[in-house]
Specification:
Elements lengths: L3 H8 L8 H12 L3 E3 L3 E4 L15 E2 L6 H6 L4 H4 L2 E6 L6 E6 L5 E6 L8 E5 L2 H10 L14 H8 L9 H11 L25 H9 L2
Antiparallel strand pairs: 1-2, 2-3, 3-4, 4-5, 5-6, 6-7
Length: 215
């Protein structure tokens, strides 16, 4: 069987590629039991040794669904969809984060809200290490900007007042020690200005591009 990293990379449009920091992360996670097989093969933020009921953060890496970008944009033109690779599930509503090739040829990390729960649609962070730091904060769902001023513990308590919160400690530790960084307490410390699908206007470049190419 191919490695999970090989599967993810093979699913990317030719114009996009995984940054080395994410390749490192997926390689380490597979070596340490984070990759699991259920209806699909995926890589969550907890090793399989952590009981499912204690996995408070639900974000996970998947292969790119070649049809998702087209459905999200309402435009299946491959010259458009080949610039977008959603490969991180950020919410149970069908929201994703992924890579986008902007008009200058630069890869940007973006969020694609489902529209039914999250409407977040903007550039998330500026580089791959910051994406890993963002995920390692450990929100139950990383797609809800209204919660970005809260700690993940606080956001979790609002939803599940009597359930214990268990952060993705192993993943956090690896990110911190591998790149010499600290994990922010809240997403607002690392995510800049946000934009949502139903905003009347935003100067966010991904928001503007999605509006321009949407059918």
């Amino acid at each position: 069987m191919n490695s999970f990293l090989d599967e993810v990379e093979a699913s990317f449009p030719a114009a996009l590629h995984l940054p080395e920091e994410l390749r490192m992360a997926l390689r380490w996670m597979e070596q340490n039991g984070f990759v699991q097989q259920e209806a699909i093969r995926y890589c969550g933020l907890y090793p399989a040794s952590v009981p499912r009921g204690l996995r408070s953060a639900s974000a996970h890496f998947t292969k790119v669904d070649s049809n998702h970008a087209g459905y999200w944009l309402g435009n299946h033109d491959t010259s458009v969809t080949s610039r977008l690779a959603p490969f991180i599930v950020t919410g149970a509503d069908g929201s994703y984060a992924g890579l986008w090739l902007d008009d200058s040829g630069r890869q940007r990390f973006v969020h694609m809200g489902s529209g039914s729960g999250s409407t977040l649609a903007c550039v998330l962070v500026s580089n791959a290490v910051d994406l890993l730091r963002f995920l390692a904060i450990g929100y139950e769902e990383t797609c809800l900007p209204d919660l970005f001023d809260l700690t993940p513990e606080g956001a979790y308590a609002e939803e599940y007042s009597n359930d214990p919160y268990r952060p993705p400690l192993e993943f956090r530790h690896w990110v911190e020690t591998s790149f010499g960084v600290q994990i922010p307490k809240t997403a607002s410390e690392i995510v800049g200005q946000t934009a949502c699908m139903d905003d009347g206007y935003s100067d966010d470049p991904f928001w503007q591009w999605a509006r321009k190419v949407a059918a």
